[in-house]
Every structure is written in structure tokens, then in C-alpha cells.
């Protein structure tokens, strides 16, 4: 007879709708938009706007599929839980561990990046000390309670949204000639320096990795839904507006940058947003942008600790990870999961103390570069399988429906596979793709082995609801 995996304690439904909605809005604005976009522009030229637009449309469709799954069954494990249900435990285990790996690496990267930015603002303090401070504080925030994470992330998101809206407003005014010392550029920077694609089409494909990495995090709202007071409504509201947010925040701001600045200017690779504000003689532009980027980095660090810990929690509850990761405190926090994610960051801080910052950045980015594409492939495959299976998606009557459900998911799946195939031939994408595929293959192998060993002795059940009366008692924690 099947036996459920025993566990202790449960998550708390302590994130209100306002917080979850803002987390969803701000989650699409990552540090990659402010930091990584400069190199992408320098490589692809003004045509980078097309890369952001095309990739954004793909992400919108993937998130629409995930929204349908999430509103039908809000769970902390999100796409990992759905993959386990529709494709088999091997799929849930593999995508869950790959995703956790990505966020653990991201926590490490953002800790080092945050320290570097703060070090520029206060050169007398070593960067590693700032990194250690940021990581320690946000680890404490995540260990306290989920409401602490939600409050911090709400304000981080509010700062990011306000900053990008103000930047776009200033940019539009400059394009229209509202600044007396800066004449309207027209299409000079867009078309007058070699056209939209001065280096050809190939760099656009290479830039897709940076773009995918920038968009990654949009799915966070479906993971946080497992601890929301009204998860269905919050996911529905957030995911329905994801298209507008991507088009405005990413495509809109990129269009402003490449219209106002020559794509081959030296300043654009360092920080395109700072370069635009400097061009327009905005007082304190560099300091302002450094503070905004630092906010985005800390937001990503905070989200990374949360996402990794909740995914590890979900995996452990399904018997696909070490059992201690599935235990919670009296306040509903999976302490072991938070500490596991934070450990990667502390190791990176230690490495940053002994190694050049560039070496640490290069390794961390390469080791998780293409995970976003892999996760999106899993979501597409899960959705397609769910519609074929019928029960999970249709009977639950989700409040968000995928457009063109009979054909668009297949088109997106083929597009993602095409992007992966194209990365094989790109010199800048081959190594990250290879490292990501190695991690993915190891995770799939572990998932298949787990499924064969477990057979039918493990029950895959929602992790956010208690299964026994003992689970509801404080002593279980």
C-alpha cells in the first residue's frame, strides 16, 4: 500500500495579495536588466530590442502556461510539483534540483555583485565585507518569517518599478527634444551606425542567454503563491499583466537606450542606464543608478534565498530531497533550505576574498547560464502533458487560460529547442550551455533512479497542506 512521506510543520499563508502582486510586478525587473544589458547592446547593436521583444514574447507564453497550471493548483513547488504530477517523479525531481541549483548560484553571484557595487559607493570598505553583510542580513530576514521576506521584497520591487518608470519617462522626454542641451536624436543612433544589426544576425542569438537570464524570476510569484492568503487571485492578477510589464520595462527601456546612445559607445558597456542619465546631465546620475542597481541585486538575492529554500522544501516533502529540508520552524520557515541556499553565497564571498572578482563572476555566470531555457522547456512539456492527461488542467477550472492552447505550446517548445540548438554553434553560448546540460543530465539521471527505486511506494501530494493531524500541531515543528 502506498505510504506518504512523513514530515513536520507546514508553511504559513502569510503573504497578502498586495505584497504578492508587487513581488510579481518587480520580479520581472532583475539586476540583469541594469547590468548585463550593456554587453548585449555592444554585441548586437540596436537590434537588441528585437531580441528582448522576441524572447519576451516567448517568456510571456511560457508564463501564461504556468499561470494556468498555478491557478488550477497553487503549490510552493510550482512547476516542479506539476512536472512530477504530469510527467512523473523523475521530471519533478530533476527540474526542481536544477532550479534550486540555479538560485543557489544566483545567491552567490548577487552577494558578490552587491558587495562590488557597495564597494564603489564606499571605497574605504572592502567589497567582500559588504557582500558578507548583505548576505547575513537577508539570510536573517528569510529565517525570521515569510512575512519578513514579503515586506522586504515589496519595497525592493517598489523601488525598481519606480526607477524604471522614471527612467523611461525621462528618456521619452529626451527623444522628443525636451532637453535644451540635447537635440532630439531621431533615428541617427538606431539606423545611422550600420543599421539595426551592424554585426549581423548571429550576435542576437548569443545575446539570448543574457536576455533569458534577465527575464528569469518572473515565475517567482507562482512559488510564493503556496504561502499566499489568496493565491489564485494574486497569481491571476500578476500573470495577466506580465506581458505589459515585459514590453514596458524591458523593450521600452532598451528602445530608449539605443535611441539616445550610439550602440558602440564605450560608456554603454559599463552601464547603459547611467550613460543615458550622464548624457542628459542628470545630477548624481552615477550614484543614483548604483543605488538602484544595488536595490535590484539585493532584491534578487532575497528572492534567490526564498526561491531555492521553497523549492528544496517542496522536493523534500515529495521524498525527492533530504528530509531535513522539508522541516519548518514554528513560524513556518524551512530553516535548512534557507541555510543551504545561503551557504552558496557565503562560499562565494570567501572565494571573492581570495580570488579576483572577475574570476568569480565568470565561473558563476557560466555554471548557470542556460538554466532558464531548461526550466521553460520543462514548463512547456508539463503543460502539453497536462492537457493530454486532461484531469489536472481541465477539471480544476483555472481562472487563467493559455492562448491557442492547441498549437501555441508546441510552437513555443520548438522555439526553445531551436534556441538551444543555436547555442551549440555560438562561441559565447557553447560553454554555458554545455555546463547547464551536464547539470541537467545529472539531475535527470538522479530522477530516473529515484523513480525506479521508489516505484509506487511514494505518494506525490501537495506539500502545502497537512496530511496528518500531527502536522498541524506546534510540536511537529
Automatic annotation (TrEMBL):
Protein's cellular compartments: Membrane
Keywords per UniProt: Amino-acid transport, Membrane, Transmembrane, Transmembrane helix, Transport
Membrane spanning stretches: 20-42, 48-67, 87-113, 125-145, 157-180, 200-221, 242-263, 288-313, 333-355, 361-386, 407-425, 431-449
Bilayer disposition of the protein: Multi-pass membrane protein
Pfam families in UniProt: AA_permease
Domain Amino acid permease/ SLC12A, residue spans: 20-426
Signal peptide range in chain numbering: none
Name of the protein described by the UniProt record: Amino acid permease
Classification lineage: Bacteria, Bacillati, Actinomycetota, Actinomycetes, Mycobacteriales
